[in-house]
Amino acid sequence: MQYRHLYYFVEIIEAGSFSQAARTIHVAQPALSQQISELEVSLGVALLQRSARGIRPTYRREALRGSLLASPPV
Fold first, then answer.
1. Phi/psi of residue 55, each to 5°?
2. Residues 9-19: tens digit of each pLDDT
3. Which residues contact 16 (CB under 8 A, 6 or more apart)?
4. pLDDT on residue 70
5. Cβ distance 18 to 55 under 8 Å?
6. Is the pTM of this model over 0.90?
7. With 70 as the cut, is the pLDDT of residue 6 above it?
8. Which residues of 33-52 are buried (b: 16+ CB within 10 A; e: fewer)?
9. 3-class state of residue 1 by DSSP
10. DSSP letter string over 13-73?
11. Are 22 and 34 in contact (CB under 8 A)?
């Protein structure tokens, strides 16, 4: 897991979609999607459910998001 994976993950959550997050952080949407896929593989869990209508959170995503936002800054 790399810092950028977590950064992108949080940006997607805040933006509500891959497309909006990609525009906000100036990253191509396919590259952003690939980074999140790598994060999911490294953790061994699906964090987001993808569909034609966008993304939906999984329970594991909420748990990860909670621990990331609760962690004190380094």
1. -110, 150
2. 888 888 888 99
3. 54, 55
4. 61
5. yes
6. no
7. yes
8. bebbeebbeeeeeebbeeee
9. coil
10. HHHSSHHHHHHHHT--HHHHHHHHHHHHHHHTS--EEEETTEEEE-HHHHHHHHHHHHSPP
11. no
The token duo for 55 is 């993304």
> 19: which 2 tokens?
């497309």
- In sequence order, the 6+-apart residues with CB closer than 8 A to the CB of 11 are 21, 24, 25
Task: Specify the amino acid at residue 52.
Answer: A
pLDDT in tens, 11-66: 888 888 899 999 999 999 999 999 999 988 888 888 888 777 777 777 666 666 66
Nearest to 20 by CA among 33, 35, 39: 33
Tokens found for residue 70: 């609760």
For the chain, give the number of residues: 74
Q: How far apart are CA 35 and CA 4, in angstroms?
A: 8
